[in-house]
Amino acid sequence: MERTGAQLILEVLLEHNVDMVFGYPGGAALNVYDALYEYKDCVKHIMTAHEQGASHAADGYARATGKTGVVFATSGPGATNLVTGIATAYMDSVPMVAITSNVPNNMIGRDSFQEIYIMGITMPITKHNFFVNRVEDLADALRQAFCIAQSGRKGPVLVDVTKDVSAAITEYVPKSPLPLKELPKATETELQKAADAINHANCPVIYCGGGVVSVDADKALHALMETADIPAAYTMMAAGAVPYNDERSLGMIGMHGSVTANEALYHADLVLALGTRFSDRVALNIEKFSPGAVKIQVDMVQPLAHRQHFRKKELFISLGMPLFI
Amino acid sequence: MNLNEACTAVSQNMPIITVIFDNRVLGMVYQWQTAFYGKRYSSTTPERKTDFVKVIEGFGGTGYHVDTEEGFCAAFHKALKANGPVWIVCDIFRQLKVLPMIPNGGTVQDMILE
Q1: Using the 8-state DSSP alphabet, how is residue B68 labeled?
Q2: How many CB atoms lie within 10 A of CB B53?
Q3: What is the pLDDT of residues A272-305, one digit of tens each?
Q4: pLDDT digit string (tens) for A130-188?
Q5: Among residues B77, B89, B84, which one has the least CA distance to residue B62?
Q6: Of A254, A224, A227, which is closest to residue A241 (Cα–Cα)?
Q7: Which conformational region is residue A111 in: left (phi greater than 0), alpha (psi within -120 to 50 degrees), or beta?
């Protein structure tokens, strides 16, 4: 069936069960907003006061629902105003698809009214981004955006669509969402090494972060705390994953964390880091962070470079948290 | 820094309770200036005259100003029954600090407790 590019955006949103989007209209986005008017019974649009509010709202919606947050903005200032919300989602690994409009194809690259190179601006704060100036590329770019946003370590993806593309008519062929990338799994050897290290430790401590929340591993975490009798400290990103009234809950760790959590980590002889990255707000002094402990880091991505400071005492296991716990 | 979105919460009739702890300074930066910059308060005491109750009322929401614990409890119970957004503005001392705190580059041994 034939659809305009703008209608096609809405169709692909429906393929991914999106029923709510946040945004703010503008000149280059008029086609998209006209399609939203047509699809308003299926997709509810929340108009904010400012695009920054819309991108933060999409981020909050994704955190609260586990679904991908979707935000719309127009070209130029509309797109640049999204930046802080997109960066927030990137830093906190929250799945988001930002759909910006851009000026017509023949105005691109001419410093046109409300033209901005948003792909370049958002390159360091998105997992990936697309510039679509041919309507035949639109549907697959959007489908890939949803797949990338939810695969592995989640995060924001931006799709920039020119006004010609949203106006153009094309053939729409419905498709199912792309399969998500499989999470890495631990080997038996890795698991055995981790189990041995835990069993040999006198005072092991769990240090958990946003990754536990992201993969819904809180129940598995509680089971591990109880079975192995290990207390747990959490980062701001994992607040709520460990019940406040649990006797094994140490509280939040880090710069403004509890005395209990910070003391426990400092004196631990084994740190089991689950879905977390030893950030500067937690490991304020990386050389002296939990200095006497063997560290086991369980995460779905290779840890960051600053890990090298305690590489000698560390065992990295790359896997999804539920599989490990 | 997004208080303008209160108007969105009003449009959407969202039952969101916002508690504003008003110390009338840029608190976290002020705390660092107190601890590490010899109390040289550069651009953290703006002496605003903003009346947050009037701000939220201007957006079409509800606001309460409280300066006691009892006042807070009463306002909070009213807020729980409201349909749209409610702001509860609590006056607090500007000397109150976010504690405990470990300074940058420190360990638990450098923790500031008071």
Answers
A1: S
A2: 17
A3: 999 888 888 999 988 888 888 888 888 877 655 4
A4: 999 999 999 999 999 999 999 988 999 999 999 999 999 999 999 999 999 887 777 88
A5: B84
A6: A224
A7: left
- Give me the residues paired with residue A130 across strands: A159
Q: Confirm or reject contact between A259 and chain B (CB < 8 A).
A: yes
Q: Where are the alpha helices (DSSP H) in A4-125?
A: 5-15, 30-38, 51-65, 77-80, 83-91, 118-122
B100 and A49 in contact by Cβ < 8 A? no
Q: What is the pLDDT of residue A127?
A: 97
A320 vs A69: which has the higher pLDDT: A69
Query: Phi and psi at residue A77, in whole multiples of 5°?
Result: -60, -30
Beta bridge partners of B90: B21, B66
**Confidence at residue A75, expressed as pLDDT on a 0 to 100 scale:** 98
* Amino acid making up residue A285: N
A4-39 pLDDT, tens per residue? 999 999 999 999 999 999 999 999 999 999 999 999
Contact A274, A206 (CB under 8 A): yes
Beta bridge partners of A177: none
CB contact under 8 A, B103 and A50: no
Please state the φ and ψ torsions of residue A128, each to the nearest 5 degrees: -165, 155
Q: Do B103 and A284 touch (CB under 8 A)?
A: yes
Q: Given CB atoms, is A52 within the 8 Å cutoff of chain B?
A: yes
CA dihedral A15, A16, A19, A21 (to 10 degrees): -120
Tokens of A323: 């599989």
CB < 8 Å to B105, chain A:
284-285
Give the confidence band of A315 by pLDDT, cuts at 50, 70, 90.
low
Task: List strands edge to edge, sheet with A69-73.
Answer: A44-47, A20-24, A69-73, A96-102, A156-162, A128-132
Which one, of A106, A109, A171, A103, lies nearest residue A138 by Cα? A171
